[in-house]
Amino acid sequence: MSVAGLSARRARGPVRWFREGRLGTAIALTPFFGFCVLFELIPVLILLVGAIGGLDEPTPKYLLKVFQHPIYAQSVVNSLILATVSGIVGAVVGTAIGYAITASRHERIRNSASALANVSSASGGVGLAFAFIILLGASGAITIALRSVGIDLYSSFSLYSLPGLIIVYCYFQIPLMVVLMLPAFTALKPEWREANMSLGGGGRDFWRRIAIPVLAPAIVSSFILMFASGMGAYATAVALVAQANLMPVQISILRSGEVIFKPAQADAMATVLLCFVAAAVALHYLVRRRTQRWSR
Amino acid sequence: MTQVTHDPGQPRRRPQVGLVAMLAVFAALMLLPTLGTILFSVSEGWTDTILPTRFLPDYWIDALTDPLFLPTFTRAMIASVATMLVSVVLMAPTLYVLHVSARRLRPLAEFVSLAPFALPVVVFALALIRTYSVPPLVLTGSPVLLVIAYTVVSLPFVYRAIDNSLSALDTKTIHEAAQTLGAGRWAPFFHVVLPSIRRGLLAAVLLVLSVTFGEYTLSAFLVGDAWQTSGVWVYKLWDNKPHQTMAVGIVGFAITWTASLLLLAVLGRRAVHDPVG
Fold it and tell me: The dihedral of CA B121, B123, B126, B127: what is its sign?
């Protein structure tokens, strides 16, 4: 009875909210959005405020110093080189492997190769770095093997340098690229190959005019994602070279160093890294939207 | 790049030697670090020879009987399992409500769920330390903060897995049908939706396991030695006992690899044909 009476009066405000179940909806969504505000939004905001030296006397000097101080600036350059080169190698090799997997006629080969890529793409970190030290370190198995046939690897190479880090990073970049590219290759429809054939096109035309243009957004968006993962990777780098001059390692040194403790500088470095990675991930999503046009 | 390998019209049965060789080289190179790790964990010396001189199980025995082995691996497992529970309890009802009665909020929820992808782990760790090492809420050093951090970094994966399942299920229709039959808001969720998306939930928890188990960075920054997990222990062990480090490293890998392989089996080819999951 009272319900009918209420609806006759056209309930407003909270009452209408309640009747439409919106209050229930709001209550049900509170934990999730509250969680994100508490543990995503607020910590990042506090970090950003820290990077400008607090709200009382905001200053850009810490952010500028990231690019001016020789060591910090070098860490930015090193991180950019590492992420870009390992990303490019990952993109080229990963695309080739992704193609080989898709084109393989044997289902068993396809399945085991993609399983291997899936498993390896998550295997970066401390363990990978240690494995490389026993293989390619100064007294690693491969280093010694090469020395026994007269090649001194360490005359022109060191695992604990930027080229060494690039090789180790490729070990998670390449499988990541394969995993990202497999759906794109599957989206290349056999009908397009047929259409190309019946219009008189050859294999080269197929690649140049159909496959590459269709795959390009996937390759680019995957490269950008690998760049982001290379910029942010910390565990692999620090396990290989504890004092590596890379942005993530530099942040950790600035935070906890026994000699240097510069909270604002650590926040500024972290803010710059965040900007690089967030911009890359945003770009990744923008480019990937183009990819998805073809996958339906 | 090779020529076009086969065309549907007239299938050429040319042997794919180049292709198979390429994949074999890829597999060999990818497996090399793992092989080295396994060999190193059972070999003596191997510091100035190409191949190990003697194989022995001592390092394994030493590593597995280390007083820190069980506690650190147990803590890592507790953190991962707690993250699975928190993730599912937080995300399943949220996504259900977003699907049935708050569709307009879905883009916002998707944005905040995928945002952790754009947050480098070190940056996130630092941000949490800045925020939760000072009053009113001091959480650093506590496993609670570690589980919260793991939940945030797992959020993109968990969101995707559950959201895909709910989309494939046509959750809104189910909800409306249940309303017509006089059910409340949550009855269809518990009796119809949850059982139907169990494949997606399984994928979500396996993803959490493979992302968080034995993780180093967040563990080291947020709890460190106050609540040492396997990732931090393995890192420290390396300086004094490299062979033993490799042995426990393999144990850790085995757990995350199993998670990845189970995940493939769960999603596998069905992901293409049957998007539930």
Answer: negative
Q: Do the Cβ atoms of A194 and B7 come within 8 Å?
A: yes
Hey, which residues 122-181 in chain B have their CB within 8 Å of chain A?
A: 122-124, 126-132, 148-149, 151-152
Q: Between A144, A197, A282, which is nearest B48 by CB?
A: A144
Contacts with A205 (C-beta within 8 Å, 6 or more apart), sequence order: A196
Q: What is the ipTM of this complex?
A: 0.86
- Do residue B131 and residue A43 have CB atoms under 8 angstroms apart? yes
CB-based contact, B7 to chain A, within 8 Å: yes
Alpha-carbon separation of residue B94 from A27, B98, B104, B218, B275 (angstroms): 10, 6, 13, 26, 20
Task: State the amino acid at position A134 in one-letter form.
Answer: I
Name the β-bridge partners of B55.
Answer: B43
Tell me the per-residue pLDDT of A207-230, one tens digit each, with 9 for 90 and over.
888 888 888 888 999 999 999 999
Exposed, middle or buried, A199 (CB in 10 Å: 0-12/13-18/19+)? exposed
Query: Could you report the per-residue pLDDT of A61-115, keeping only the tens digit for each?
Result: 999 999 999 999 999 999 999 999 999 999 999 999 999 998 888 888 888 888 8
